Amino acid sequence: MMNIPDSAHPRVVIIGGGFGGLSLARKLKGKNFQVVLLDKHNYHNFQPLMYQVATGGLEAGSIAYPIRKVVQDHKETFFRMAVVEKVDTENKKVVTNIGTIYYHYLVIATGSTNNFFGNKEIEKHSMVMKTIPEALNIRSLLIENLELALQTNDEAAQRELMNFVIVGAGPTGVELAGALAELKKAVLPKDYPDLDIANRMQINLVQGVDRVLDAMSVKSSRAAEKYLKDLGVKIHTNVRVTNYDGKVIETATDLQFHSQAVIWSAGVKGAAVNGVETAVDKASRIRVNSFNEVEGIKDVFAIGDVAAMYGDKYKFGHPMMAQPAIQQGELLAENLERIQNKMALKAFTYNDKGSMATIGRNKAVVDLPKFHFNGVFAWFVWMFVHLLSLIGFKNKALVFWSWVYNYFVFDRESRVIIRPFRMYKKNSMAQD
Amino acid sequence: MMNIPDSAHPRVVIIGGGFGGLSLARKLKGKNFQVVLLDKHNYHNFQPLMYQVATGGLEAGSIAYPIRKVVQDHKETFFRMAVVEKVDTENKKVVTNIGTIYYHYLVIATGSTNNFFGNKEIEKHSMVMKTIPEALNIRSLLIENLELALQTNDEAAQRELMNFVIVGAGPTGVELAGALAELKKAVLPKDYPDLDIANRMQINLVQGVDRVLDAMSVKSSRAAEKYLKDLGVKIHTNVRVTNYDGKVIETATDLQFHSQAVIWSAGVKGAAVNGVETAVDKASRIRVNSFNEVEGIKDVFAIGDVAAMYGDKYKFGHPMMAQPAIQQGELLAENLERIQNKMALKAFTYNDKGSMATIGRNKAVVDLPKFHFNGVFAWFVWMFVHLLSLIGFKNKALVFWSWVYNYFVFDRESRVIIRPFRMYKKNSMAQD
Q1: Which residues cross the membrane (chains A, B) (predicted)?
Q2: Which of A208, A324, B259, B345 could form a disulfide with B163 if both were Cys (CB 3.0 to 4.6 A apart)?
Q3: Is residue A77 part of a domain?
Q4: CATH code for the domain of B415
Q5: Contacts for A92 with CB less than 8 Å, ≥ 6 apart
Q6: Which of B66, B143, B190 sits opposite A416 (nearest CB)?
Q7: B408 neighbourhood in chain A, CB within 8 Å
Q8: Which of B340, B374, B397 is where one domain is finished?
Q9: Nearest one of A269, A9, A44 to B417, comparing CA atoms
Q10: Taking CA atoms, what residue in A is nearest to B82?
């Protein structure tokens, strides 16, 4: 049994300290609930800036925030670092590596994970960027590959080590490609004067459909494509990757890439917990009604990326982004109170505040519900919104300072390999 | 063969990018030498602040600086990330994991490593803090132990997890004890309201001789002891640790500690490379003459912690600190030129600028060659000297900002477990 004190109030167990779980926990503060928040990490990470950790622009700590600090002054909130093994909705309990816990209400806010669409070879050989350790692994691999390239004069071998192939041109892929291109332009030639960085380092961005950022407006796609090309990124649209053996990337076309650095950002899926299989859809998300109640399971809710709330406008659920998660968490806090007070529940409607992506210095695209803009102003908006969204004054200041520095000095000083990746590739540690 | 271009100038191979190796490489810039700098990491780390990384006050990146950036504008300097396997002084070559390299002059600047005085049990079970990954492991263990303590109501088990025992009260041990005590006082009770941090968390500092900081003045020792006691650290002088099995620490006295968190800072020794055994002394340091020439081996030099220059005042060599390393590196650059110009060499004399240690907020001790002072002013001096000594404007600014923040907010925000330690204890990754 997990060691949590008894309470006079009903217990809400929240699995996951991401945007959704935290927004819910914060809103439940001071309400008549005991809240138990579970996460396998002791920090919340700000995923939208993960690519900057991977490319040495930000320190890992700048986008990680201790969860305990968020709930520090919540008297009835208990955080536990735990890995959830399964939920038993019949007996209303959650089984974890540190014991079992009973709930009155369960909220699944476990987010999303990488989707390799069943291809084990790609999963085995490519890098991903959903967690901070994974982002740090990409950073290490990037530098390790360049160091390895120094050890050979064979052009083909060098090109293979220096060919960065990003599969998937959603916001993650596009932002990572842009950041890599800036590294290539401003930082790496100075660090590696003996490598022909300008010619032999390549950044290939491979997209299955006909444009990058296909969830955004066509105008944004076009602007992003232009920015990427100006930075030297090679864009390959309508190319579906079919395999990668650690050396060669095969596609459904004649195109083939030789690369020892493939980053997979071509798909995400829900990270549903064990025990709610009856409600899980094809994208591994959990079907919920408009009150975020899990289909057919009493007193169990799902919010954020892992929740699929099918609707007219969002046929297969809301986009897997921070905003729907935050808004659902906030509403669910209200609805849990309404349940306690035997009041009618409020249905969720997504307030789409728009979406944006940055490609590099002075370059971003922004889609608001009514109009699109891009360029320097979009870039400032992007920075402003992201700074404001970061939790904590210290993180805001650290990120702000790093950006100011990187902007004026054209540098990325976090290009250090604290823990090597290649040497430990086959080691589970490298992934966690 | 290592892939380094030929040069018209004689080649100086430097093993180690610490304080000594870097000061030498910098001074050789623009001189008539080809310089090849080898290090197993791609960053220089600022060891004096390592304990703040271990206790969540600083991010790892704030004390790590890319070596390539240091030598970026040195045309004839080549950095290679390499692990040296041995040196072959007869054939004037260095054998590494990325190939062999010939030298005209070899400089060994490999620093120091932990000294367990042959006790394998202690080595296996205790934590150390010589590298950044090791400091991050301590940070992870500290938090993991508190999370584990939450899972039990058994007082003895909790105390064992929360008993931090630091063996060795030199600057490292003292500064770490002070930082842990401040965490205990200001941060942890808020994070863990359900644990009885104030009573059950203990910080024990165990010292083999009769005072802490025994390399400093008696006044400094007394002041440091008072500061530590005020912070709640229990000091045990004249206690020699004899064994630790992962649970119980045995000493040469009746004293025994039950602890799952033992940090070993009781000794260092030279980290000599293979191949110079004839010159290695009992402390694993390499005996050098007053020109830093390795005893009996032509064209091979050693500087810094690994070099033992026996003298009248420093019977077994200089203290293993940054200053002697930096000064020896600088002088050796001059002497290498003198050798080329067939001029007489200059003998090294250590300019002792003093030593200092900080115990916590507003508390430090400073020994200058002529006098001692402590308290708030010493603390400001300590901060000022350390900030100035950091390489790079960005690191200076990040550290400064973190200190200002920690000072006013009484916080340590880097208390996140990016890579867990306990789970991977037996895994080599955890150590590298």
Answers
A1: 371-393
A2: B259
A3: no
A4: 3.50.50.100
A5: A102, A103, A104, A106, A299
A6: B66
A7: none
A8: B340
A9: A44
A10: A147
Which residue of A36, A151, A402 is the best one to mutate when testing the B interface, meaning the one whose CB has the most B CBs within 10 A?
A151
For residue A194, list chain B residues with Cβ-Cβ distance below 8 A.
5, 78
pLDDT of A35 > 90? The answer is yes
Q: Give residues with Cβ within 8 angstroms of B407, minimum separation 6.
A: B361
Q: Do the beta carbons of residue A280 and residue A286 sit within 8 Å?
A: yes
**Does A93 map to a domain?**
yes
Biggest CA-to-CA distance, chain B: 74
Expressed as residue numbers, the domain containing A171 is 120-266+416-431
Q: Is B355 a domain residue?
A: no
B54-72: average pLDDT = 91
Indicate if the pLDDT at residue A136 is higher than 60: yes
Helix (H) or strand (E) holding B66: strand B64-66
Comparing alpha-carbon positions, the chain B residue that sits nearest to A426 is B429
Q: Which residue has the higher pLDDT, A393 or B34?
A: B34
Instruction: Tell me the pLDDT band of B423, cut-offs 50, 70 and 90.
Output: low
- Number of residues written out for chain A: 432
Cα separation, B287 vs B276, whole angstroms: 10
Q: Are residues A241 and A203 in the same domain?
A: yes
Is B161 within the bounds of a domain?
yes
Per-residue model confidence as pLDDT tens digits over A3-29: 999 999 999 999 999 999 999 999 999
User: Which among A78, A100, A413 is the top mutation candidate for probing chain B, defined by the most B β-carbons within 10 Å of its own β-carbon?
Assistant: A413
CATH for B291: 3.50.50.60
pLDDT of res. B104 = 98
Same domain, A230 and A135: yes
Please report the sign of the dihedral spanned by the C-alpha atoms of residue B30, residue B33, residue B34, residue B39.
negative
Give residues 228 to 287 of B whose Cβ lies within 8 Å of A: none
Count structural domains, chain A: 2
Residue A415, chain B, CB below 8 Å: the answer is yes
B81 touches chain A (CB under 8 A): yes
Q: Are residues A127 and A242 in the same domain?
A: yes
Where among B311, B340, B369 does a domain terminate? Answer: B340
Q: Which residues of B177-213 are buried (b: 16+ CB within 10 A; e: fewer)?
A: bbbbbbbbbbbbeebbeebebeeebbbbbbbbeebbb
Rounded CA gap, B116 and B269, in Å?
9
Whats the size of chain B, residue-wise? 432
- Asked if pLDDT for residue B393 goes beyond 60, the answer is yes
Q: Do A64 and B397 make contact, defined as CB atoms within 8 angstroms?
A: no
Per CB-CB distance under 8 Å, the chain B contacts of A42 are 143, 147, 415-417
With an 8 Å Cβ cutoff, is A61 touching chain B? yes
Which pLDDT belongs to residue A427? Answer: 40
Closest CA to A166 of A244, A89, A273, A100: A244
At residue A423, the pLDDT reads: 59
ipTM: 0.89
Residue A133 phi, psi (nearest 5) = -55, -35
* Structure tokens belonging to residue A11: 């217990």
